[in-house]
Design a protein that fits this description.
alpha/beta, four-stranded mixed β-sheet, 12 strands, globular
Length: 269
């Protein structure tokens, strides 16, 4: 009886050991999955453009650039600084997500003041950037905050005016982000029939993934000379006007550097 009981205990211990090992393996897999999920979440954070309060003008973010900067990871997102010429070269092309500070935005614009404090900028929305909640293509202008709230501005449809003329005087005079959009076709504009027909991608034509935006106040922007804007901006197909685009990144950078000098000479700030 003792021998049979001993064997039973050995069998029970062996079974218990296997069960413990299974639980241990399962627990380890759960821990690894949690770590992987956490790492993935840390990669998927908002991209935060830190803009000096002295900067006005167009900006372009170029991704997958070998000579680019690595975004600095903070608790709120991945930070990159807009340099004096407005051309932000970024080494990779991070997958964007949300953070506790910015649960509704994957791209954030922060104006950094001289005392180190920051102000989160709202975005002016063009009629062609957003539709209403029913997805009806009624043109409208508006201002979107970092929480994703869109304040719609009544649109007078004054064809002789400018798209943001209907902003209030307060909105016209506060710093904001304008024309935030992709710039592959508008700035570099691969005009080949193959690209327009979808037969060749931007990568095949060596056009980098990029985004553009403009920093300033509406009343100030309305007074800017033409050279303050990026090429490709303000194309007016109805008038058969098609502004030239850039043939290379270097051409874009050279023009941006020249713009810095000219802004200082003409006191545009």
């Amino acid at each position: 009886i003792q021998d049979r009981s001993g064997r039973a205990r050995d069998v029970w211990r062996g079974a218990g050991g296997r069960i413990k090992r299974r639980y241990f393996i399962l627990l380890a897999l759960m821990v690894l999955a949690a770590i992987g999920f956490g790492l993935d979440r840390s990669r998927r954070m908002p991209l935060i453009y830190v803009i000096p309060d002295s900067y006005v003008g167009p900006a372009v973010a170029l991704f997958n650039q070998p000579d680019g900067i690595e975004p600095v990871q903070t608790k709120d997102g991945l930070e990159v600084r807009v340099p004096e010429n407005g051309i932000v070269k970024i080494r990779g092309n991070p997958k964007l997500g949300h953070s506790q500070a910015f649960p509704k935005s994957t791209v954030v614009f922060e104006l950094e003041k001289r005392d180190g404090s920051r102000e989160v900028l709202s975005e002016a929305i063009n009629p062609w950037q957003d539709y209403d909640e029913n997805d009806n293509p009624h043109w409208k202008v508006g201002i979107r905050d970092v929480r994703g709230n869109l304040r719609v501005i009544p649109f007078s449809d004054n064809k002789a005016g400018f798209v943001f003329d209907d902003f209030s005087e307060v909105d016209r005079n506060r710093p904001m982000i304008f024309w935030h959009e992709s710039c592959e076709d508008r700035v570099f504009g691969p005009e080949s029939e193959a690209y327009l027909a979808g037969e060749k991608t931007a990568e095949e034509l060596h056009v980098p993934p990029c985004g553009e935006f403009v920093v300033g106040t509406f009343n100030h922007i309305r007074q800017w000379p033409e050279w303050m804007f990026l090429r490709g901006k303000g194309k007016q197909e109805k008038m058969d006007v098609r502004n030239p685009t850039y043939d290379s990144i270097q051409e874009l950078v050279d023009e941006a550097n020249a713009r810095v000098v000219r802004k200082k000479a003409e006191n545009i700030n």
